C-alpha cells in the first residue's frame, strides 16, 4: 500500500472547493494509473504554480516543455476532459461521478467567464470578493483589517467565521446538510482504519495507549500490560475489523 502526500494546497471550507479538490486529485491519479494522463509537462513547475496562484484573473499563461503556453484553467480542463473520457471508456461512470463532473465543468466554465461568478462556490473567490469590497471602500489591501480577513474567514468558531456568515446569508452554496457532516465527524466509514481506531477510543478512552497508522495499543487495566494490535488495510476486509471490535465490545471489561 502506498501513500501520496499532496503538500501545496489550501485548507478548504466550501463544500464545492473540498469536493473538487479531492475528486480532481482522484481523477488525475486514475489517469496516471491507467497510463492515460495528458501529455502536459510544465517547463518550470514551481514557478508556474506561483504565477497561476498569484493571478486572480486566471489569464496568466505558463510554458510547457513542448512550447505551448496554457492558462491554469486550460490545463485543468484538459485533465477534466481526459478523466471523464477515461471513466466512460472504463464503464465506471456512476451517478455520483456524473454529478462531480457536472460541477467540475460548471466551475471551470464560470471561472473562464468571470472568476467572481464563483464566489458562492469557491473559498478563494469568496475571499477575493470580500477583499475587493474593502478595496472599493478605499481600504488598502495591506490594512490589518484586510489581512485579518483571511484568518477570520476560516475561523472554526461559527460565531466568528466569515465563511459561516456567508452560508447563513445564503451567499455560499452547500452540498451536504450540516447534520450529515456532524455525523461523519463522529462516525467514519467502516471500510477505513479510522473506523476501528475511533471505535476503540469510544469504548476505552482511558485504555488506548496509542493509535497509529498501522498499530493500535491498548493497556489492560488489571495487569497494566500493553496489547498491540496490527491494523491491516481495512478496505480489503472491513468485516474482519467489525468482528474484532464486536468481540471486544462483548468483553467490555478490557482488552484481552
TrEMBL record:
Residues 237-256 are annotated as: Disordered. Transmembrane segments: none annotated. InterPro entries: Pup_ligase/deamidase. GO terms for molecular function: ATP binding; hydrolase activity, acting on carbon-nitrogen (but not peptide) bonds, in linear amides; peptidase activity. It holds the Pfam family Pup_ligase. GO terms for biological process: modification-dependent protein catabolic process; proteasomal protein catabolic process; protein pupylation. This is Uncharacterized protein.
Amino acid at each position: 500500500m502506498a501513500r501520496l502526500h499532496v503538500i501545496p494546497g489550501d485548507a478548504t471550507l466550501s463544500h464545492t472547493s473540498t469536493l473538487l479538490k479531492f475528486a480532481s486529485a482522484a481523477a488525475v491519479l486514475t489517469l496516471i494509473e491507467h497510463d492515460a494522463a495528458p501529455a502536459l509537462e510544465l517547463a518550470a513547475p514551481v514557478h508556474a504554480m506561483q504565477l497561476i496562484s498569484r493571478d486572480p484573473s486566471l489569464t496568466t499563461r505558463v510554458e510547457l516543455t513542448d512550447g505551448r503556453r496554457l492558462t491554469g484553467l486550460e490545463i485543468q480542463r484538459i485533465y477534466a476532459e481526459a478523466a471523464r473520457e477515461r471513466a466512460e471508456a472504463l464503464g465506471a461512470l456512476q451517478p455520483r461521478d456524473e454529478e462531480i463532473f457536472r460541477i467540475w465543468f460548471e466551475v471551470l466554465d464560470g471561472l473562464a467567464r468571470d472568476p467572481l461568478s464563483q464566489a458562492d462556490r469557491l473559498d478563494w473567490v469568496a475571499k477575493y470578493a470580500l477583499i475587493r469590497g474593502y478595496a472599493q471602500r478605499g481600504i488598502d489591501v495591506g490594512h490589518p483589517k484586510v489581512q485579518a480577513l483571511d484568518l477570520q474567514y476560516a475561523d472554526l468558531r461559527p460565531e466568528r467565521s466569515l465563511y459561516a456568515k456567508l452560508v447563513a446569508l445564503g451567499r455560499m452554496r452547500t452540498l451536504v446538510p450540516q447534520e450529515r457532516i456532524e455525523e461523519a465527524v463522529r462516525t467514519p466509514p467502516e471500510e477505513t482504519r479510522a473506523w476501528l481506531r475511533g471505535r476503540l477510543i469510544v469504548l476505552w478512552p482511558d485504555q488506548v495507549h496509542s493509535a497509529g497508522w498501522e498499530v493500535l495499543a491498548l493497556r489492560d487495566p488489571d495487569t497494566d500490560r500493553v496489547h498491540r494490535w496490527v491494523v491491516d488495510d481495512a478496505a480489503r476486509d472491513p468485516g474482519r475489523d467489525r468482528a474484532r471490535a464486536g468481540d471486544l465490545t462483548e468483553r467490555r471489561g478490557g482488552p484481552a
